[in-house]
Amino acid sequence: MVAVAGEDEWLELPALNIAVLLNSLISSQTNSQESYTGKIGWYRAALVSEIVDGRTVRCMPISSAADFSALMDEDEAAKVPPVTTALRVPSMVYVNMKEPPQSCIKCAIGKRRQEQQLFQLTGIETPRVDFDEAHLADPGRCSSTRAYGSQHMDLEAEPMGTASAASLSDLVLGRVVLLQIDSIDGDEGWHGRMLLPAVCNSQVEGEDKVEKLYKLLASKAMAWEEALNGELEDLPESESEWDRVEAIARLIMERRDAEGVEDILTFFFGTVFDCSVCPPTMAVTDVAYVMLFRGLAWVDARSLFRFSEENRGESVQHMLAVQEGAETQRRGLWSLPFDLFEKLPVPDRRRFSGERSDFPALLIAQLLNHAQALEGEARKHKNRRIQQRFFAALVVRVVDGDTVRLVPVLSDEAVRLHVDPAERLMMTKVKGAMSVSTRWIMDCPYCPEVELSSWSSEEKSEENMSMDSRSILTQVYGIDAPEIRVGGIRQRYAGRSKHRRAEDYGSFYLDSGGQPLGVAATRALAELVLGRVVLVKNLGDDCHNRLVGRIFVPAVSDVLIDKRKKYKKFFAALLSRMRAQGLVKGPLAPGVKGVVEAVKKLSREEVKGLDLQSTILQCLQEIRLDTISGLVDASEELLRRGLAIVYKGWNVKYDGDTQKERLNHLESTAERRLCGRWGLPEYCRVDPKDFRREHGRNRGGKPRANRGHCTDALLGIKEAVSIPERKSETAGT
């Protein structure tokens, strides 16, 4: 642990500790004893002393807490707000600010000006700004009809240049950050990633928060590693939480070798620090992602070129996806009038970030939303959530046979934070999940896996973290599955009863406290969707503020499981079907590129009067891979097995009358064939609605007033939503 003793307390700088740890792990891996100062691929802790523009800073590298104390006065350090506060500021605050932001820490610059190091964020560009001009700006010089509030400070700069720099200033100025050095230019300037821990200074933010950060990092890494690779043996006793983090990291390095450092950093990125706001504050945040999310930066042209030509990893894909979200919601510079926006050197994307994804659902969601924009519907709806009717999401938990928890994901990098590639390899193919007989599902005496290992009970128990701030409680549309016991499924072996009657089923005793086949329905849904990136059609909210979603599982859900050949076959079949529907004309590239090119070429005139979304969706459902549909509807699959019934009630969302008729037909067919519940005695066929009425339950659990706001925040429609504290959360809500 790197700390310095003061008169009354120790100074703890998490960024410095993380830098020392990661560099020591790299050294042990490469057997290098060389100094890592300014070395490409290594990490440095640095105090940000000056803001140059929205992506460039001057900083002072530090190697000990004593270096920080010599640079920064306590009074000046106390003025820097907590990181969690800075991350919650909405972009409109910077867009409409009246006064220029603070651009430097004078006490630090005055002491060691010659030691300042120029650092520029890799992968993004921001509007040009001159702070001297901004400070001298006179609001009277600007037209009274300003396009945005801070326009008077950008008269000698590019539009929103001051807002972009102000955002970066709030995030990093006066803080010790973690720098990942990717390259060094001819003037010895550093380029790379700037990572921001949720707590930067123990003297300002409190030792208890630093200890909480270290405890969460250790718990996350340990829980995930043990779930994937077994118990961490020979873990030494630790005097402090940070010593425990170091010990766990070194054991992980011994197991994973070359991928160890990257995996440890992924654990840090995926650790939730604060759930009092939605989306939650993570233990470590990439500053470039925040700038893109606020719409105050864009992905630079060089990164776009690398993405298109060389496929340089998941980071650029995630940046593009975050930018697409800001553009859709018209945040920051994306809200500028055309005459101002064209002054910015924003490159023409012409591509979807999902093109390079291992998960077809990501690209399909983008294609469908682009089709909606072509139809012009997005501008007509007052409800902003309708602008993003389709989205890709990772299913992290199956609550029961008709309810799941989803985490919207923008890229492969976002998926990796929740599910490790090793865990993905353990999953069955979609065809395998659908091939399991309903009778086996009903007779299996073991409780099903209903939650990803990354969502372990140890992680969730930390200060009763709110599930609503981290995931969207989603009701699977159109169906009603048997209820399970209050408190969720018990993880135990039921065994076979000696008094088992002929009409009973093998998992009968797992349903104690709930309805017959409640666990079987949960198992069937979990086999189909848990741990997969699915396509969700947002049908709105129900009376319990839950999202009602139509969940589609692509026949090829993950390249890692289904392999690249089948992935190409999936999109080739889609392109062929689109050509048959008249959506494709002329020669096109094969596979994914051809599908994207075809959709991009469509104009508003060509789709006028055509429900383009429904047509593309129909094409996806009509293609066949290994005898299964290109898109599997989860509700239809539960009805086909006879493990659910069509939900009937007031204001039920069926996604149209045609789909309602189809659901009723599937239920009738299952009843006629005596599938699932229909082949069991009368006591197994009690309507779930009657069961809830008899036992005093409601379908949505405890009502949560903030649930709808959290859904909007997780979908990127709102920037941040505060969540009131509460004591506990029962399972299934």
Structure commentary:
The model is unreliable at 4-8, 377-387, 457-464, 496-502 and 727-733 (pLDDT under 50). The chain has a five-stranded mixed β-barrel, surrounded by four helices. Strands 14-15-16-19-18 form a five-stranded mixed barrel. It is of the alpha+beta class. The longest helix is centred in the N-terminal third of the chain and has 23 residues, at 207-229. The protein contains 31 helices and 24 strands. The protein is globular, with a radius of gyration of 27 Å. Among the domains are: 14-29 and 39-133 and 153-274, no CATH class; 390-455 and 467-490 and 501-679, Beta Barrel (OB fold (Dihydrolipoamide Acetyltransferase, E2P)).
| Radius of gyration, CA atoms, in whole angstroms | 27 Å
Question: What is the SS-derived class?
Answer: alpha+beta
* Strand numbers in spatial order across the main sheet: 3-4-5-8-7
The parts where pLDDT drops under 50 for at least 5 residues are 4-8, 377-387, 457-464, 496-502, 727-733
**How many H/I helical runs?**
31
**CATH class wording of the domain at 390-455 and 467-490 and 501-679:** Mainly Beta
InterPro entries: SNase_OB-fold_sf
Explain briefly what this protein structure is.
By secondary structure, the chain is an alpha+beta fold. The chain has 31 helices and 24 strands. Helix 13 runs parallel beside helix 15 and helix 17 packs antiparallel against helix 27.
List keywords for this structure.
disordered C terminus, alpha+beta, 733 residues, five-stranded mixed β-barrel, 24 strands, OB fold (Dihydrolipoamide Acetyltransferase, E2P), five-stranded mixed barrel, globular, 31 helices, single chain
